[in-house]
User: Fold Acyl-CoA dehydrogenase from Streptomyces hundungensis.
Amino acid sequence: MSAPSSKLPPFDASDPLGIDDLLSPEDLAIRETVRSWADDRVLPHIAEWYENGELPGIRELARELGSIGALGMSLTGYGCAGATNVQYGLACLELEAADSGIRSLVSVQGSLAMYAIWRFGSEEQKRRWLPGMAAGEIIGCFGLTEPDHGSDPAGMRTYAKKDGADWVLTGRKMWITNGSVAGVAVVWAQTDDGIRGFAVPTDTPGFSAPEIKHKWSLRASVTSELVMDEVRLPADAVLPGVTGLKGPLSCLSHARYGIVWGAMGAARASFEAAVEYAKSREQFGRPIGGFQLTQAKLADMALELHKGILLAHHLGRRMDAGRLRPEQVSFGKLNNVREAIEICRTSRTILGANGISLEYPVMRHATNLESVLTYEGTVEMHQLVLGKALTGLDAFR
Assistant:
């Protein structure tokens, strides 16, 4: 047995498990690039954007995100960065540490709209859309959820019928991130041959995307309804590479992976705010961070935060090796978002009344995560995915 090292590295409170030791210099450089961009371009303004319920300059932000390679980051070719999935996950964490709305912009652009075209589109569709989307010059959205069909997309009513060589698309989609500013919408619809995806230019007659207002979550994000009123599309608008629900569901699995990382960013920002507050806020003659009950809260939050980051890292390595299963993505999404919300709520108790103020990020992250908890698969759906995997029995119906 080899002798133990005579000198251990110092304890790093920001990385208590030493997870950074698993990252390469390139991983760390990408993380720093995205963190610096978010610190410079988002954090100084995000409280105002959130309070006003808007994301001004979204097109400029998209171009900036394209310039640092954050859009379609893990895709290859067509101007995409070709980063690893771990690197993409690190970017998601840093973006959501700023705000869930910013990470949603990137996730929908890259993991849903771009990924659908990249994986299932024709070569012509890829060349038409992906370079501009990777650069942030074209914003994309992904239309699957409908007003009456969320967790059960197989029941969607949006329909595309053939009319000669053309397709005519009619229906509505709801809660669509980026919809009102998108140049292309990937829309999933019923056809006589099953569910198909369509790359829809948003300037096509009959297409509209009214923005959804009065949200109390994801306020610094563009959320829209998509309305298709007999939208006539050429034959080459259909994505030729897939028929059936496996198309949109594979896109959702890719996006959920980013959420596994992103939720830990929101949790980290809230936890860090709680730690700093606990060290400076005095009650009964000393900082509240010196009281046992506060330290117990901080210790429990640190456990869940860094376990969640370690889980995200593990899933990323599996994804890079081509071994990540959808059930494992459900495992990560269910655990990390649920724990992130609890970290935000506990952080709020440490900040007391100040925790509800936009001067601190905690309540903003907590309310954002209420949306993240249920979009791209509710808690119940992921529980049933895991339940079926564990028992072999399907309890969805």
The chain has a mean pLDDT of 95. The radius of gyration is 22 Å. The longest helix spans residues 246-280. The CA atoms of residues 279 and 289 lie 5 Å apart.
